Amino acid sequence: MYNFKNDYAEGAHPRILDKLAETNFEQQLGYGEDNYSLEAKFILKEKIGCKGASVFFLTGGTQTNLIVVSALLRPHEAVISVSSGHIQANEAGAIEATGHRIITVEGENGKVTPSDIQQVLDTHTLRPHVVKPKLVYISNATELGTYYAKHELQSLANICRKNRLYLYMDGARLGNALTAKDSDTSFEDIAQLTDVFYIGGTKNGALLGEAVVFTIPQLAQDFDYILKQRGALLAKGRILGIQFLELFKDGLYFELAKMANDNASEIADAIRKLGYTFLTDAGTNQIFPILSTSIIESLSKKYAFYVWKKININQAAIRLITSWATEQHVVDAFISDLEKAHAGIEIY
Amino acid sequence: MYNFKNDYAEGAHPRILDKLAETNFEQQLGYGEDNYSLEAKFILKEKIGCKGASVFFLTGGTQTNLIVVSALLRPHEAVISVSSGHIQANEAGAIEATGHRIITVEGENGKVTPSDIQQVLDTHTLRPHVVKPKLVYISNATELGTYYAKHELQSLANICRKNRLYLYMDGARLGNALTAKDSDTSFEDIAQLTDVFYIGGTKNGALLGEAVVFTIPQLAQDFDYILKQRGALLAKGRILGIQFLELFKDGLYFELAKMANDNASEIADAIRKLGYTFLTDAGTNQIFPILSTSIIESLSKKYAFYVWKKININQAAIRLITSWATEQHVVDAFISDLEKAHAGIEIY
Amino acid sequence: MYNFKNDYAEGAHPRILDKLAETNFEQQLGYGEDNYSLEAKFILKEKIGCKGASVFFLTGGTQTNLIVVSALLRPHEAVISVSSGHIQANEAGAIEATGHRIITVEGENGKVTPSDIQQVLDTHTLRPHVVKPKLVYISNATELGTYYAKHELQSLANICRKNRLYLYMDGARLGNALTAKDSDTSFEDIAQLTDVFYIGGTKNGALLGEAVVFTIPQLAQDFDYILKQRGALLAKGRILGIQFLELFKDGLYFELAKMANDNASEIADAIRKLGYTFLTDAGTNQIFPILSTSIIESLSKKYAFYVWKKININQAAIRLITSWATEQHVVDAFISDLEKAHAGIEIY
Amino acid sequence: MYNFKNDYAEGAHPRILDKLAETNFEQQLGYGEDNYSLEAKFILKEKIGCKGASVFFLTGGTQTNLIVVSALLRPHEAVISVSSGHIQANEAGAIEATGHRIITVEGENGKVTPSDIQQVLDTHTLRPHVVKPKLVYISNATELGTYYAKHELQSLANICRKNRLYLYMDGARLGNALTAKDSDTSFEDIAQLTDVFYIGGTKNGALLGEAVVFTIPQLAQDFDYILKQRGALLAKGRILGIQFLELFKDGLYFELAKMANDNASEIADAIRKLGYTFLTDAGTNQIFPILSTSIIESLSKKYAFYVWKKININQAAIRLITSWATEQHVVDAFISDLEKAHAGIEIY
């Protein structure tokens, strides 16, 4: 049984484990003051072309989202997100637990649009009886496998700046977004167009770890305190620093993301060739093909995946997620099994 | 320069790194549902003699403390702790950030006493104008290197049960407490005498990780939700499961703790032999010798440590922390250098 | 200019002011221990037929809602409400500020339906990644002027009990709901069908004040602490006790509510007679007639009210709220002015 | 039985009740937009000599304290207070419930000293493991009946400004502080020396109500939202506006406070004349005479008061609180009864 349910079913890229072993007995300072964390931050700031940025390493996405929101917002300020956004759909009320409302908008293909934001602003004017929209949360890549084009990010940045809203990008799968085949957005663009974003390690080669980047350093003021207060400051911060250093000292991070995308792309092409359509025009390592229930049943015998959405009595969209660790022979086998199932041949 | 400032300056015990590498490409379920986490929990429950317990893995001590308190207490309920307790002294207000007051007591040698508790109960009666004491927080080993004798824990358990207070033990250094030379307390005793406790991994051989144990499973009801909500649920939960499995499948955890204690003990004996006294009668891997400022200055050239407390103009107590990773030659060198400094010989 | 914008534009019913003056120089205990509060609670419990209930007096609706939710829910538990519910639409994120998500449902005519609740339960199963629905919030009368029929409340109570959800009624306008012309629900019914509800004073004759009733006293455990902690415990609790005693020692509370309803009803009848329709089939003291923009403009010269919803380019629904303090001559004048405006005659 | 336990045992000054009745049927805007609130704010700003100030009306002291702290502090910032401060001793953990620690200092006679503050700053440097002191809370008059001299406030203001700490004054009994016999501080001084303060109505003539004054209007930014979110915005805000207008349109507020002080002073003089001493050198409407237990027992038959502190087996300090509503004949009777008890004559 092969698991296409997520991109965190395996451990870390071997280079990371090797580096952890190699440096294991060096004494390093705790709490992120170690040499590896410092070097990793330096390199990250160079790569995004923003040497004045402030970078922090945390251990997971939910943790990062809740601490960023908690650090940036005053009690009455609220977050805007699409309904499918991770903070709304998958984080057990983490944002509300820090005291803030999420105002949900419909979006398009998992993406927030400027008109979504405008509508929220227009309907939140009866001060002080309503919350004050203050931060726009976007995921890139989104939870539907889509990603933002550069002009889309520019439009969002424009409306946010005009209305003094923070633009915050959840980059749990940022690598996948930036290496998508038709992506026109660079790492530097992300830094220029958002106020805060995070670079996901867990879903792209690391054991764990996310790097938050405040491109406006004033926004990071006292972030260290809040990070500690919420239990996110690792004593052995080196294990995050070492991982991000290994991922970014050359191009490993983006190589891994591209491998994950290519795996998905190869599967998607095969599906398309068989005449099937998709729920979203994804482009990254998450694809949502619409298949017949009998084919879904067949594939379920050998592959684990989520049935995402019922389309009608005979069809449903499933979600397949690939990663850097998905091997070519798995991709080949899946395509072959799909073709068999399509042809009505039993698979096992 | 050797660092005696803490017990998290190195990485993990090599067996842990090996196991992470060995299992790296296995696909496992996320969020702590992996086989390693399940097996580690099973073994832990056996070892504490409490098969009905509920066990959860988290990434750090502050995180664990704040989530346990948050899960157990209603808004008006408060925590009792000594002033030197980690939650009061070193966690950036994490407990208050979850909405709860810490009522501090003086304690003795870093330990809460039954009379401390009684006094808090006696002075918190003017309902509803005061907070309601509900949870007693103790660290074992304490922040002053001391540990609780069995009869002390029994007394605390008694007064807590009588007054419907939870007894919660922060076991960041539980291994050190249980393997202290004169300790009469077993792992099973801890489970029987506390309502909740955690077993620290970070400071005893792991890269990161703490295991929370609810000995009364009802207290753990819905703990998974709260853990997720606070950002403590790792996607790759396997990395915690694998570490705890490795530490507990045989006696590694306690071996490492004993090594740390022995290292401290050897240094303490040498210090005592030279005629110096200690701030506390520690017994674990943290010792607080009182030395002259000139000796402190000399040692500072080759060793990093905290000056803990000024005693008078000529003397101060320093804190030395050893770990499983402190090698014998370092212990020997330190003792030799101390003897030199004591004899007025310059060290370098 | 007469104000139909709300039902709190005047002070209190004169009997209340008289009673405050009459008892002014008596010394009474503070913090709700005064004789008047005790007597008012006793009478309320009698009137709802639930002598075991626990009753508390607070100063306003938002305060009451946030404290009840805060007292009943654990951190990961969430509230279900219609989008038009006061907690969602008008309370500046008060519920989220206590740490809890509001899951919004569409409802019908401002009312939650059992199928709304079922749908929320069905879509919140992916534990622990989602919040746990735990409390159903309903307003009665609703923000759209409608009220719950007895069978509707019974259905809600059934699904809530079956799924261990609390049913909480915001009764800011409970008097208006129970005295609506076709209402088949009694005060006792409310106590039997909800777990907690509050009886609004502010909008029905009091200067300020709401009475929270826990029909299951265990749910009120330690509520006094939380009420104090949130700043809701008045030093001079007598001023709430005196008002509720005056409102409930005879039938004043329901008389005032009925007066408000009758005023609205008279206006609604006149509007209907002129051929206009309504946005909702209200029945209480809030009505939402759909008028032409030119008539709305005419009426605006002499009357203040909210334009609630644009219907089309020529029509909009306005909201008119009456109260016990709306005098007959105002009702008559408004109807007369409306008839003039309808006939194209200018009003002034 | 006469109650000396507090200064809120009676209702309001009759002029306030009269004004509420007189204005009762006027329609006014809700939520503090009424004419009376606006006028009261205007007058207050004139009287404190700070026309740029921002003023808000709330209903009680605990509510005011928690909302001010909540509005001013970021999550990791803490409050400094003496142990006897109302927020620490009597508010059920309200400050911690907003997420902030109170760092307690010993103080002198219930007052914070600059050296207290310096010591807190000196011991909170290990960023980010400690909280960040940010707001100094002082009560004036204090909970021990004492008040701040002008030079004391100046010293506090100096150290606060130097260290970017907010100076916040809880003025539940501000009137009593400013009208104390030897007070050298004016209403204007308070506005100049603090960043935020509140003027207590409840304990000085009002039914309920406190006026918060932000002397630096930027600090009040969005305070209205937070006030609403915490349930402190009264629908009928007029009842607060009318009361403060009545108290401040002439000198009523300070007259009432002086009456309370004079009553206490007369009793204190009589006690002193009999040879007794006091726990604190109070000066306002709270006095703490040290009496023999037999005299305390005698007085308890006719007067209610708190026994504040045991001095030894035969003596205790009691707390007597007078108010504007304490009549001369009560003062006379108490003194006469005390003289009898002192002479060993039974009182009844």
TrEMBL record, chains A, B, C, D:
Residues 16-289 form the Aromatic amino acid beta-eliminating lyase/threonine aldolase domain. Keywords: Aminotransferase, Pyridoxal phosphate, Transferase. Its cofactor is pyridoxal 5'-phosphate. Pfam families: Beta_elim_lyase. One of its GO terms (molecular function) is transaminase activity. It comes from the Bacteria. GO terms for biological process: amino acid metabolic process. Belongs to the threonine aldolase family. This is Aminotransferase class I/II-fold pyridoxal phosphate-dependent enzyme. It comes from Sphingobacterium olei.
